[in-house]
Amino acid sequence: MPLSNNQAKESDMKKLMLLVATVMSLSSIHGAEIKTEKSLSFYQDLSCFEITNIHSEDSFIRFAASEIITDLGKDVCSRVQSIESLEYGDEARSGEISAVQFGKLVESIHTLYTSEL
């Protein structure tokens, strides 16, 4: 039986929150840090399509792309709210991942990446 829009949205949000929680708990276990090529704010300012480029020359972007696509699917970018919609105060629609949530996900992955694995 197919999921309703609300059930699908809840399922996506649960996956996203579980991924964030997992990344945060894994990163808290490790002490030493690895430096990324750029700052966290640089990566958070990238579009979903840029941060999920598995062919990027940037090792963090390749790592983040792998984590995001594995957990949220190849079509994740079609469900992420645009940054421009935030500027107009628009909320994420049903089935969308808000730009704020996606930014927090990138931050969590960055924390994991910069921790010694």
UniProtKB/TrEMBL annotation:
Name listed for the protein in its UniProt record: Exported protein
